[in-house]
Every structure is written in structure tokens, then in C-alpha cells.
């Protein structure tokens, strides 16, 4: 009886200690749960499916159309291949398995490190898979994007490819020189083999070809997962990166693209290698800090741009609701940028500068203006070639939309300052009213372009009046 009690006490203590150790390892083995990448994969794949389906219906002969119409597995495998490419590229852009400086301390704990690491990977992969299952199911049941067969095939494809790309990154980063090159080349050869099979084989063998490729990827994934994942980790080689986290040097180089040097001086590096000295002015210093932050976090900028463009094209082509597509896509971009802006308000490198709200907002707008400009150019092209509006109407519409967007973005950033200082419910109500006003102005800019002149003049006069009153 006493042995049973001792065993129960030992098990209880061990489980509690094990849970605490797992929490420590969650911080040391930083596994990125990249919600943004998961979200934009759905519109990205949906847009590819829409274009592919329209191409098949319009440009193929009747025989090939009939075959595709009666071979859903073949068509579904092509769509699944788009997902494979998207997930593979996303994993290269934003690696998920990272190390922090606390790893070096945790190796002294008397636990199985491999077991902890595998459990963390399994837990995060299951979370990512659940998100994709929900999104694919909603796309199938509510929007009729996919057939049931396509939905199931896409979910299986994502489950295999997502785990494969994560483990592939982890294994490849621990290799050196030629071994790493062979790893990367092997991955691209696998993608090319599957892609060539899609192009060359216009028969039911194509679906089998896809199944063979995915089976090979699944086999390699299982083999890697059964191997020792931490056999060549250099625990001491972590460096300071950013404000709080530290990373493996090789992963830092892959993410930033600028080697191992963190920009500590006020220089902006161009692509041609030349350097531009920053003027010793407060706005220039703030702009240089923002540009340095965006330079060393390219994946954040790329995710924002891809998400915005994907949602805009999806709503414009699928539903033809242009005012809603303009509003939602721009609102998404502004809120993602606002989150970055709000997070950086609390960092030390911005706290030590004697900045004002106006200088801070002005420098941030200057750093991200090219993102807004790219979106406006795309919206102008879509409005001309898809909506059927005339060129002058489109110009008036995009100019009005651009002015309203910049004005709304400035007010949104100003409101973020106030929200940090106080959690007043009135500020949240004010933010909601701003969104509603912005949606109404977008409706006017798209469907009544001529009224934009009156609205813009009114906004400028109102802004000038408010400034004069404050002075």
C-alpha cells in the first residue's frame, strides 16, 4: 500500500515538474504559430483555383474539358499542388522552429530534451491544422469554393506539407555547406517533379503521380521525425536579435538577408551596396529606425502585402463588390500596420528619443507609404479592367479613396496613442465610428466619384479649422 502511495506521489510531482519544464521549453524552442500565413493561404489558393478553372473552361478543347469535368481527383490534385507551393514558399520566408538563448541553460535539466521538443512541435502543428480545417470547411460549405473531395485533399496536403517544410527547415539549417545545398536542391527537385507531372500527363495517371509525390514526402517526414532532432545544435551560438528574443545565427541570416550584422548606426543600406547618411533630425532618425525595423523583418512586410492583395482580388473577382473589397483590404493593411506601430511604441529604442506624436506618425507614414502606394495602383488597375468604369471615373475614385485612406490611417494612429495611455471605452467607440465613416466614404468614392472633389475639399477645410482652433 505504501509503495502505491509513494508511486502516486512520485507521479504527481513528476507531472507537475514536467508541465513547468514544458512551459520553459515553449520559450526556448520558439515555434512560430504564424496565423497570418495560414489566413492568406486560403485566399491565395482560392484565387489560383478561380483562375485555373476559368482557364480550363475557356481555353481547353471540348475533349480535355470533358475529361477534367469527369476527373475531380485530377483537378483537385492541381489545386492541392498550388497549396503545396504556397506552404513551401511561406516556410522558406518565415521559418517556424527557432532557438533562444535560454536553450543553453535548459540543457542542464534532467529531462528528455528530444521528447519536449517533439511534443511542442506536435502541439503547434495540430493548432495550425485545426485552423486550416476550419477555414477550408467554411470555404466549402458557405462559399462553395471547393468540392468535398477537393477540401479533403487540400487538408491532407496541408497536413503533410506543413510538417514536412517545418522539419525540412530544421534539418537543413543544421547542415553545412554542400549538405545544405543538397537539401535545398532536393526539395525544389521534388516540387519540379510533381509540377512536370501535372503538365505532361493529361490522363488519370496524373492523380496517381501526385499521390506518389505526396507519399514520398510523407515517408521522408516520418523518417526525419523519428531521427534525433537536436544532434548537431550548437547551444552557445545564439545572438541578441531585436528587443527580447535571441535566435540561432544561421536562422537570423536567412530571415533578415543581411548577414549577422544588426544595424546599430544610422545608415540606410540600398540594394546596390551604397549607404546614405541620415540627417541629424528627429523625423529622419525615427524614419531610419522604422526602415531598419522593416528591413530586418521582411517577412512581416511581405505577409501584410500578400494578405491585403489576396483579399482584395478575391472579393473583387469572386463577388464584384468593389466598395467592400476596397474597404476591407485597406482596413486590413492599416490594422496590421497599426499593430506594428503600437508594439514599437513600448520598445526602448523609441522611448529614449524625445519624440512627439506628430513626428512619430509622420516618420511611420513615410516608411510605409510605398505599401499603400502599391495597393492603390493595384486597385486602380482592377477598377479599370474589371469594373468597367471609365478611366476618368477610375482616377477620381482612386484619388478619393487614397485621400480618405491616408486621413483615416492618421486618425487611427493618433487613436492608438490615446489607447496606450488610457483604456477609455469612449476611445474604442471613437475608433468604431472612424471605421464606419471610412466605409461610407469608400462607398462614395467608388460609386459617386464626382462627389470626391466636394468631400476632399470639406475634409481639408475641416482639418485646417481644427488645427487653427487648437493653436
From TrEMBL:
The keyword Membrane applies. The chain crosses the membrane at residues 29-52, 73-93, 129-146, 152-170, 182-201, 207-225, 300-317, 368-388, 394-420, 441-466. It comes from the Bacteria. Keywords: Membrane, Transmembrane, Transmembrane helix. This is Uncharacterized protein.
Amino acid at each position: 500500500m505504501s509503495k502505491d502511495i509513494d508511486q502516486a506521489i512520485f507521479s504527481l510531482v513528476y507531472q507537475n515538474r514536467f508541465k513547468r519544464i514544458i512551459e520553459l521549453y515553449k520559450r526556448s524552442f520558439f515555434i512560430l504559430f504564424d496565423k497570418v500565413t495560414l489566413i492568406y493561404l486560403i485566399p491565395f489558393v482560392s484565387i489560383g483555383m478561380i483562375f485555373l478553372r476559368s482557364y480550363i473552361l475557356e481555353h481547353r478543347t471540348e475533349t480535355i474539358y470533358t475529361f477534367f469535368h469527369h476527373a475531380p481527383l485530377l483537378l483537385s490534385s492541381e489545386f492541392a499542388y498550388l497549396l503545396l507551393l504556397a506552404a513551401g514558399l511561406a516556410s522558406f520566408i518565415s521559418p517556424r522552429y527557432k532557438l533562444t538563448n535560454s536553450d543553453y541553460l535548459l540543457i542542464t535539466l534532467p529531462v528528455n530534451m528530444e521528447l519536449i521538443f517533439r511534443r511542442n512541435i506536435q502541439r503547434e502543428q495540430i493548432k495550425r491544422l485545426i485552423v486550416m480545417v476550419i477555414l477550408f470547411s467554411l470555404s466549402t460549405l458557405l462559399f462553395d469554393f471547393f468540392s468535398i473531395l477537393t477540401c479533403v485533399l487540400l487538408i491532407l496536403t496541408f497536413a503533410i506539407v506543413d510538417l514536412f517544410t517545418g522539419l525540412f527547415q530544421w534539418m537543413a539549417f543544421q547542415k553545412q555547406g554542400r549538405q545544405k545545398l543538397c537539401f535545398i536542391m532536393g526539395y525544389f527537385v521534388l516540387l519540379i517533379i510533381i509540377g512536370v507531372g501535372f503538365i505532361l500527363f493529361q490522363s488519370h495517371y496524373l492523380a496517381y503521380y501526385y499521390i506518389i509525390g505526396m507519399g514520398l514526402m510523407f515517408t521522408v517526414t516520418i523518417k526525419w521525425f523519428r531521427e534525433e532532432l537536436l544532434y548537431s545544435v550548437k547551444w552557445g551560438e545564439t545572438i541578441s536579435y531585436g528587443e527580447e528574443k535571441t535566435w540561432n545565427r544561421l536562422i537570423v541570416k536567412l530571415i533578415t538577408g543581411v548577414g549577422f550584422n544588426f544595424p546599430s548606426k544610422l545608415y540606410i543600406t540600398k540594394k546596390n551596396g551604397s549607404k546614405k547618411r541620415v540627417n541629424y533630425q528627429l523625423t529622419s532618425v525615427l524614419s531610419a529606425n522604422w526602415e531598419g525595423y522593416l528591413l530586418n523583418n521582411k517577412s512581416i512586410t511581405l505577409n501584410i502585402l500578400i494578405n491585403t492583395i489576396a483579399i482584395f482580388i478575391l472579393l473583387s473577382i469572386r463577388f464584384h463588390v468593389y466598395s467592400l473589397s476596397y474597404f476591407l483590404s485597406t482596413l486590413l493593411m492599416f490594422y496590421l500596420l497599426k499593430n506594428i506601430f503600437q508594439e514599437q511604441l513600448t520598445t526602448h529604442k523609441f522611448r529614449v528619443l524625445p519624440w512627439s506624436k506628430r513626428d512619430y506618425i509622420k516618420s511611420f507614414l513615410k516608411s510605409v507609404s510605398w505599401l499603400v502606394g502599391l495597393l492603390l495602383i493595384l486597385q486602380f488597375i482592377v477598377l479599370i479592367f474589371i469594373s468597367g468604369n471609365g478611366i476618368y471615373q477610375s482616377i477620381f475614385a482612386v484619388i478619393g479613396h487614397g485621400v480618405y485612406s491616408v486621413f483615416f490611417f492618421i486618425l487611427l494612429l493618433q487613436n492608438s496613442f490615446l489607447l496606450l495611455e488610457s483604456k477609455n471605452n469612449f476611445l474604442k467607440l471613437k475608433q468604431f465610428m472612424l471605421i464606419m465613416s471610412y466605409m461610407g466614404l469608400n462607398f462614395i468614392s467608388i460609386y459617386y466619384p464626382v462627389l470626391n472633389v466636394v468631400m476632399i475639399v470639406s475634409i481639408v477645410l475641416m482639418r485646417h479649422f481644427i488645427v487653427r482652433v487648437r493653436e
